[in-house]
Design goal:
single chain; alpha/beta
Length: about 500
């Protein structure tokens, strides 16, 4: 039973070749061994109470063993001794045995095994049925933290600098059961930035609320983006719940991070702004209701990992219940599955991303708008998304059809559409040619510099191999850049 419990989530090799346990320690603290040695008859008296005479001959010439019990001896009693044992208390009946123990692999024989056999011996029951083994937090170089190395990290200092939730979140992110992780301050800083993202999202929602009432969801008034975000949120509820039930903490945290940052904040909040600032109050109220529903639900999912900030934000938003910590866990809701609408909206998103990326590659500023022509067989879908494309893809106008003349146009392709943007509306050809030629001249100068170095046999022979290889790699990148610049110049000259 002992091995079977741990083997579920740990390596059985950790339980092989176990030696007898020497329970005595020469320490100044701890539970003193309750054994007294008689100087007259040589017998040993063991007693729960302090012995005053030998239990065998009655002599008072007895001495207690000077050693203490191993620290793990008392720690092994922890699951039941903390609940009032040996008395049959209400806490002992209610809480013992528990279900899951979370601990590191370095104390499996010291603590886990000893809790198991102590629990079985003293109560007749195993103290827990599942053991989740996690790794150790090491320093940035992968070394175990220790006083001798002086590489320990004071969590209180980290909390003062970044916050307790940022530290908790960074330790859970990218963590897989049983594997060690390195403490890297930049990861804690990134988690702090995520916390700031939550504050900013909450601030935006609060700025756009009209009252403290919890607005009901009204499916008949849902816009396409409402159905999309609700469907995405519903999937996250299901996935995160399943991950936590399987102890996949790192996967659960990553899905929450991606959903809150990329899906909710970067897309849905941006899309909602036009409705919240528009004249249609019904559409604005629907957006408010969806914002609050999805955000408070996401806070509940995130609460085990970032308890302080999620509770603080939840309390400031319209809610039902006394505290986030004791509200019901979000549940998957089949009525919020909108697979078709989700697919349609992501076709529109793909076009917006493609257009924005192409404009960025061409250094076209957001202020310069251009007409967008979309050739697609999903005309109804893109007709519903023209407003999003105009606002988020910086389009002056959107035209949808079966095909368009591609001459003199920039083309971007997604799975569902081919998008054309008239080149002359995007680029000042004269200025762009001048810029590209300047960049080409600099790239050619860099090329000559690297070639001169690599053609110098003295440098190649004497320089470290890594340095020579770095120069070759730099030359390769410059040659690739020159080819791209020459191609861009040729395309523009063809269009002039």
């Amino acid at each position: 039973l002992l091995c079977g419990t741990i083997i579920r989530l740990a390596n059985p090799a950790w339980l092989e070749n176990i030696r007898d346990w020497c329970i005595s320690r020469q320490l100044w603290w701890g539970h003193r061994i309750p054994a007294w040695y008689c100087a007259d008859c040589g017998e040993i008296t063991v007693s729960k109470e302090d012995a005053h005479c030998c239990a065998h001959c009655g002599s008072k010439n007895i001495t207690q063993d000077p050693d203490t019990l191993d620290t793990w001896f008392s720690s092994a009693l922890w699951p039941f001794s903390t609940l009032g044992w040996p008395e049959e208390t209400a806490d002992l009946r209610h809480y013992y045995p528990t279900n899951t123990l979370v601990t590191g692999y370095d104390i499996i024989p010291f603590w886990v095994m000893r809790m198991m056999f102590s629990g079985i011996e003293q109560t007749g029951e195993v103290p827990f049925d599942t053991v989740l083994i996690h790794g150790l937090v090491r320093d940035s170089q992968g070394r175990k933290m220790s006083k001798s190395l002086g590489n320990g990290v004071d969590p209180l200092e980290v909390i003062d600098k970044f916050g307790a939730d940022a530290l908790r979140f960074s330790l859970a992110t990218g963590n897989s059961p049983g594997n060690d992780m390195r403490y890297i301050e930049e990861r804690v800083e990134s988690s702090r930035n995520f916390a700031n993202k939550l504050w900013n999202a909450a601030r935006f929602i609060l700025m756009n609320l009209k009252s403290d009432e919890v607005l009901p969801l009204e499916p008949d008034n849902f816009a396409l983006e409402d159905k999309w975000i609700l469907s995405k949120y519903n999937a996250v509820v299901k996935d995160v719940t399943e991950n936590l039930e399987k102890y996949e903490l790192g996967m659960a945290v990553q899905k929450l991070y991606d959903f809150i940052w990329d899906v909710f904040c970067d897309w849905y909040i941006e899309i909602c702004k036009s409705r919240l600032n528009g004249d249609d109050e019904k559409a604005a109220d629907t957006a408010r209701a969806v914002l609050i529903y999805v955000f408070t639900g996401a806070l509940a999912l995130l609460h085990p990992f970032m308890p302080f900030i999620t509770e603080e934000i939840w309390q400031s938003l319209p809610h039902k219940g006394e505290a986030l910590m004791v509200t019901d866990w979000p549940k998957f809701d089949t009525s919020l599955e909108f697979a078709a609408e989700e697919e349609d909206f992501e076709k529109i998103m793909a076009v917006i991303k493609a257009v924005r990326n192409r404009r960025a590659e061409m250094n076209v500023p957001p202020s310069k708008k251009a007409k967008v022509c979309i050739a697609t067989k999903f005309k109804d879908t893109f007709s519903r998304g023209t407003a999003y494309i105009c606002r988020l893809a910086y389009a002056s106008d959107v035209e949808i059809g079966d095909s368009f003349d591609s001459e003199g146009a920039v083309r971007v392709i997604t799975d569902a559409a081919t998008v054309f943007m008239p080149m002359r509306e995007l680029v000042d050809f004269t200025a762009e040619l001048e810029r590209l030629k300047k960049e080409l001249k600099k790239a050619n100068d860099d090329k000559e510099f690297f070639e001169k170095k690599l053609n110098n046999q003295g440098f190649v022979a004497k320089a470290p191999a890594a340095v020579v290889e770095q120069q070759r790699e730099s030359l390769k990148k410059v040659l690739e850049k020159i080819a791209m610049l020459e191609n861009s110049i040729a395309e523009i000259e063809k269009s002039v």
